[in-house]
Amino acid sequence: MIMRIFQVTTRPGKEQAFSRFFHDTAIPLMRRTEGLETILPGRARADSPREFSFVMVWRDLASLQAFVGEDYQTPHIDPAEAELVESRTIRHYDLVQG
């Protein structure tokens, strides 16, 4: 399985708008995605009010690529959030079963 950590920093002043998008659009979309075994959405905290994240566990690389395309290393965003996001990062790891 593949652990994918996606982090977003919003543009200043766009925290509330991104929060609405995150809760109303992004989280429901991800929960319906085939091949996504686990999703852990993380909202902003008082000490990092512009940062949001998703920790996702994908069944396999084929499932991940079916969702994002062949270029899974590039963080993709929904066009609706483009004006809200200042930066984003993506990291991938092989999941270690404990």
Automatic annotation (TrEMBL):
One Pfam family hit: ABM
Xref: InterPro entries: ABM_dom, Dimeric_a/b-barrel
ATP-binding listed as a keyword: no
Location of the ABM domain: 1-72
Top-level taxonomic group: Bacteria
Key words of the record: Monooxygenase, Oxidoreductase
Transmembrane segments: none
Any one Gene Ontology molecular-function term assigned to this protein's record: monooxygenase activity
SUPFAM superfamilies: Dimeric alpha+beta barrel
Coiled coil: none
Name of this protein: Antibiotic biosynthesis monooxygenase
